[in-house]
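My main concern about presentation is that the manuscript never shows what a single data entry looks like. The format is easy to grasp once an entry is in front of the reader. For illustration, here is how one protein appears when written out as sequence plus structure tokens:
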Amino acid sequence: MILSLILFALGFLICVLLTPWVIKLAHSAQLGLDAPNENRKRHEVPIPRLGGMPIICALSIGLLLILSTLPEASTSFFPVLLGSVFMCGLGLWDDFKPLGARKKLIGQIAVAALVYWMGLRIDRVTYPGDKWCVYLPRSLSMVLTIFWLIALPNVINLIDGFDGLASGLGLFMAVTLGIAGWLNEQMAVAWYAFTMAGALLGFLVFNFPPARIYLGDGGAYLIGFCIAALSLASSNKGSIAAVMLVTVVGLGVPILDTTFALVRRGVRGFPLFHADDEHIHHRLSDLGFSKRRVILGVYGICVVLSLIALSIIWSQGRTIPIAIGAVFLLAIFALRYLQYVRSFSNVGGQIERLFARRRTVRYALLQAQILELEVDRCNESTEFWPIFNQSLRRVGFLEEGDWTEEEAIQIHVKYNGSKPWTLHAPKDIGTTGEWQRLADCFRPIYVKAIAKWRHS
């Protein structure tokens, strides 16, 4: 326990000392800065997205100390360190120069496959208390391991929408896995987890609202990968079902948020990686809660879920129904209170309406793709804008002069700090939110055209 506290303090100290240097470096060299805009990035000044750098330094130094104490752990922990470095590097690459969702996913799969090949894998499923054990075929083992190792980094990345949110959730999960490793007599796992917890606490000094630095993709991928890898490493002498359940329950909020996002986008017809501002933290903010209250409220839920998760190990699996029930109740509460579902009595009607609008969304996205080609093809703005306006009318937006105040909804589309672009839509066909999402399909094209013909 003494070494756990030393490593926790070491991780904290390294991040507290290194993070200000990373912030200064980013501003002076203009590296990895996240510029504000009025769409989804509402901070007032550019903020560095290089939070992964001080955290990976703290983890690497902590691991050197761990391996000097337990040299026999080097074989099992080398894949964890190598995978962490590569996953963090992939995210930092995207922070410097956006790679696109497909390239990032391919990179994540490559890193996870390398770690699997190095021996960190799900090769059996053992129920708590060793009541039964099932050995998995090699192909299934590889698929499950790779899915687990890439799912959690993306879950953490998706929840990283508010200052201090993802880093705080990572902190609680690291403490949870540290306790789980200690209970399973996996001291190297416990020490590494507590090093990570200390590093994240040190990073939170600069990431808690108002943030001076963001995790970025590098930091989010690093936290998610470490959680996934530690849960596998912790299960080597314990129950893999128990440790993975501990992780799933402890990360109940971001996992539910990711599930809601994927279902929401899929049903509406948007690409699964299409960014929006309808995550759990955004919905809570829209209800009038301040950013700090949202963060602290989510922290409180995560603490409760972490304690319920650890009870699975303490009780040797007897509290699994309670843990599953807690996550289920949280999902029902979030669906109704945050208005993802407006009424459970009319769920069928709401789903039918979403699917009816899905075709319009797909058509709008197709029109946007065509317009992107038109921006490059057209030489003059006078040639492009009539085509652009015609595409808007095809989707259903009203032409100037074809509406009255009683018949139309005003849709304001903000972009790059400029005066909002205003569209009008029929009030009797869709809601303001539905038309807003359709307008957002054309935002990138509008901005690209404005930039091309700014002086014409």
In short: Residues 19 and 54 are 6 Å apart (CA to CA). The chain has 16 helices and six strands. The two ends are 69 Å apart (CA to CA).
